[in-house]
Amino acid sequence: MENKIILVLDNIRSVHNVGAMFRTAEAAGVDEIVLVGITPAPVDRFGRERSDLAKSAVGAQTMVPWKQFPETVDAITYLQESGTDMVCLEITDSSVDYKSIPVPDGLVPFALIVGNENTGVSDQWLNAADMVCHIPMAGEKESLNVSTSCGIALFRILNK
Fold it and tell me: How many domains does the chain have?
């Protein structure tokens, strides 16, 4: 089986963050983006391209295949049915340093899940995940912007 790298965007609010993550995903070689809940899609409900997302994605929204799931449970089921290793990027009591996440070996599909700008990755994802990792913070802030964190984690985990 060929490795498949999936990026999951869990209830991201900002269309600009979503566009930036499409651009980063394309640059990192992500095979698919899964949009969950309120996460804006590259097209609106009428099938028209969203110019606000396209502006920050700079064309990547047409290069990376994507799927949309209104309900988290359906996205989790989609990944579990394909045997995908799921890693959440979130600070928790049991999360590990993102630098310790093993590089996907090419045999098992791999998904990185990033969460909402205010509330983070939902408990449903945290409970379903194979692993939870975080980016250690050296300063006083507790976290980075979700699109920045996404890029750092993708490039490190995928050894890019």
Answer: 1
